[in-house]
Amino acid sequence: MLDVRDVTKVYGERGTEYVALDGINLRIGDGEFLCLLGASGCGKTTLLNILAGFEEPTAGSVTLKGRPINGAGPDRMLFFQDASEALFPWLSAAENVEFGLKLKGLSKSDRAAIVARYLKMVGLGNHAAKVPSQLSGGMRQRLQIARALAIEPEVLLMDEPFAALDALSRRRMHVELLNIWQQTRKTVVFVTHDIAEAIILADRVAVMNVGPASRVARIFSIDLDRPRHPGQQGFGALYDSIEAMIGGAAPGDSESERMAGARHN
Q1: For residues 110 and 127, what is the distance between their CA atoms, to the nearest angstrom?
Q2: Sign (positive/negative) of CA torsion 188, 189, 192, 194?
Q3: Is residue 119 part of a domain?
Q4: 68, 208, 222, 230: which could join 42 in a potential S-S bond, CB 3.0 to 4.6 Å?
Q5: What angle do CA 226, 228, 234 make, to 5 degrees?
Q6: Predicted confidence band of residue 15 (pLDDT cuts 50, 70, 90)
Q7: Is residue 19 part of a domain?
Q8: What are the CA-CA distances from residue 38 to residues 225, 249, 250 (Å)?
Q9: How far is residue 64's CA from residue 3's CA, in Å, rounded to a whole number?
Q10: Closest Cα partner for 80 from 22, 16, 132, 3?
Q11: Is 240 buried (19+), middle (13-18) or exposed (0-12) by CB count in 10 A?
């Protein structure tokens, strides 16, 4: 689905260059759930922005089904940490989902059917008339997902979408996202610095080393049965292997990382 070849990203001018990414190679399969994992500053978001077409690589290439990515497009949807900034606050949940469908020129009846389908899929069927400020943080993220799915993108690009949620809401969103992914089988590229979150969600985890000149240090295949949890056999050993690869967790890590760490301390 996505083929990243020798991608390098350099910021600044000669004499003040900062090499953010240095020779990234990554192939992401159709329908795969891949997590980009690494400490802050390792270039995860930069790579995601290149996949979205918001930034151009300084060198190398990115293709989607063999087609070069040149700018943003409806075949790729980028999700933000704060759904409140992505949603239209003056529109209802249904109108937010309908917005992209209007731009596509679909009839009113077709739009209504699609909106109802995806609001139901994300568990917001009874909240169609509410505006975003009337929804919880988790509900707003689900609304952002419904709006993206409604226009049928090929790839979902998610930049730490649950980082602003409390621990309980994050765990619920993991379940919700996996249910949606299993129903739609969209290709997902999910950025996180949370080791446990990556193990819970992904088919594969691409670990990036800390920048400058970040690269994909190693890719882990996650062969644990779903649904996954930190107490599952093999979870702790995999967590330790990934943690060693990224150089250990820093103080103040997320709740799910602390929960996983507590299991084998």
Answers
A1: 20
A2: positive
A3: yes
A4: 208
A5: 105
A6: confident
A7: no
A8: 23, 10, 11
A9: 7
A10: 132
A11: middle
Q: In whole numbers, what is the pLDDT of the chain averaged over residues?
A: 89
CB distance 162 to 141 below 8 Å: yes
For residue 179 the two structure tokens come to 């249910």
In a domain, 38, yes or no: no
Q: Using alpha carbons, select from 243, 166, 39 the residue that is nearest to residue 264.
A: 243
Is residue 20 classed exposed, middle or buried when 0-12, 13-18 and 19+ CB atoms within 10 A define those classes?
buried
CA distance 2 to 67: 9
CB half-sphere exposure, 2, CA atoms < 13 A: 28
| Total of domains in the chain | 1
At 86 the pLDDT is 85
Encoded tokens for 231: 């107490």
Does any domain span residue 141?
yes
The SS3 of residue 144 is helix
pLDDT (tens digit per residue) in 25-55 = 999 999 999 999 988 888 999 999 999 999 9
Selection from 56, 12, 11, 7 nearest residue 36 by Cα: 7
